[in-house]
Amino acid sequence: ESRRERGSRIDWRLFWRNVVERSLARWKCGKAEKEMKGCARRTLTGLSGLQTTAKAAAPRSFACGRRAAQLQSSVARSAASRNSSSCFGRRAGALRAVASEGERASADRTDMGGSRGKVLVSVSDKSGVVDLARGLVDLGYEIVSTGGSFRAISEGGVAVSQVESITNFPEMLDGRVKTLHPAVHGGILARRDLDDHMQAMEGQNFGLIDVVICNLYPFRATVTGGEDIAFQDAIEKIDIGGPTLIRAAAKNHKHVTVVVDPADYSSVLDALSGDDAKAGESLRTHLAWKAFQHVSSYDSNVAEWLWENGGSKGEETYAPPEKTVPLRLVNTLRYGENPHQKAAFYVDDSLAEDGAGGLALSTQHHGKEMSFNNFLDGNAAYSCVCDFVEPTCVIVKHTNPCGVASAHEGQDDPNDLRQAYRWAVEADPVSAFGGIVAFNRPVTADLAREIREFRSPQDGETRMFYEIVIAPGYTEEGLEILKGKSKTLRILEAAPHDQGNSKGLKQIGGGFILQEHDYLTPEDIKFEVVSEKQPTKEELEDLKFAWRCVKHVKSNAITIAKGKRLLGMGSGQPNRVKSVEIAIEKAADEIEGSVMASDAFFPFAWNDSVEKACQAGVKAIVHPGGSIRDSDAIECCNKYNVALLTTSVRHFKH
Length: 654
Known about the structure:
By secondary structure, this protein is of the alpha/beta class. The chain is about 45% helix and about 15% strand. It has a six-stranded mixed beta sheet, with helices on both faces. Strands 16-21-20-19-17-18 form a six-stranded mixed beta sheet, with helices on both faces. It has a five-stranded parallel beta sheet with strand order 3-2-1-4-5, with helices on both faces. A hairpin with a 2-residue loop joins β9 (about 390-395) and β10. The longest helix has about 35 residues, at about 275-310. α2 (about 10-30) packs antiparallel against α4 and α7 runs parallel beside α15 (about 265-275).
């Protein structure tokens, strides 16, 4: 590389500044007085050259005035301690002259429109940071940066200094300590409207920092990357200096602008280039809130990870003594459950929910925007259908499944969801109209046509109307066909929600209650026959189907099923016998030979829930058992030759 090419890349302003600083540093270190006298003449000659250099470099240096102040202060302190040396007196006088010239040059630069302030940049996410730095320099700001941010900005061709130019101290401990220094945090936290703050800054020769651009190490991405990560590697991704910078700048947002989100870069540049003080103050306040929230969410992820990785000290990990749930706004909703209620939709950014799927992370391919009630009903439908192993269709109205059917071996094609869809509608066509339809298999072109063209079983003419269709996927043709059903039909694609690590939170007045999800399925449960009659193979399969359904019905819950399709259900009644009566009514003529499931035990049997079901034509019943009158239920079923099974598992749902 030629000397000319090498010289073209040198920042001469920074070069001469470093010359002055290094000369001063060597002087401040002190030599023995005897040695100083011997080199006095050479030192004074060198200072004459430095004076000329400072005069030439100052107009080009945003920080020259501050350097001059540092020189003056250093001279004063050293002169006081070594005033016995006549050689030192001459040297001090020369340095004062250099400082004086620098001050005058800096004042001239300010009059000509010099530095508007200093910006500290330390970002992990470097998207857009070079353009931001270039824009800030164009506005007259001086950029100071750290490590990788410095390299990115420098390589982008933007003038930038390293943070060491402020601290006069190198980074250490493998980068753990870079900005944790009084010169940095004093410059951020100093209140410009308090004289004692400004005098303290002047006394320490610290400059002010007016803008802080900072975001944090990718801790979340590191611990959720899908690979096992060593404990210490995760620890190294816990940011310390970044949160400290952000919190300091956010606290002093009356005077300092803090930016943590690249999406805010353009609005910050607009505000800094404008003259509207009120707009700038409003933006700084908003950015300060955003900064504190950014750090809070970051810390909640760190705390969650530590609790699950040894921080619990062997205690039950599902219930830490303190818990913070980071929520991220997706959008506001038109209204809540009712038009007079405001509402919004958030995604859970807890580590436990990372990659767990579910309706909140669904893709909407078509239709109107989702409403508050759409989310509630859609979640109920998709949670229910994803509990089934066989190809299944679930239809939900007001969070209760009113139609459920599974394709099975008895069909010509055991994977054909079209028949399962028809059976689900036929279970309660009145309730299904305007409901949510969910599948646990991708929607094909044939299934899409069935959904689009199927007529109500009530009159054979009215096309069924739905609010939402949800599935884990769609064929390209199937999606286009389904879009043709209605302009307003919401078509969602979602991965099943993995409930393994997540917990359910419900709000009550003044607090929350937390529980594990009800993850038990018939495969996890032992069905014990307690009656004289044994269920047939088909009845046992239907009992498991009904049991899977009842888990998703609001208590008191009763389901009646046959042939792996729901015939009727009773939900939400204060007494169980009423739920049984409603389910029997809905099953109507098809109840003969069916099975029934109850989410909790039967407190009474004779002339109550059990006997009414037996008399209606139910041939097998399953319930948790555990009542002091379980023997009455057994005797009743034996009288009517009905099989009775217990599970020792309850499925209350409120």
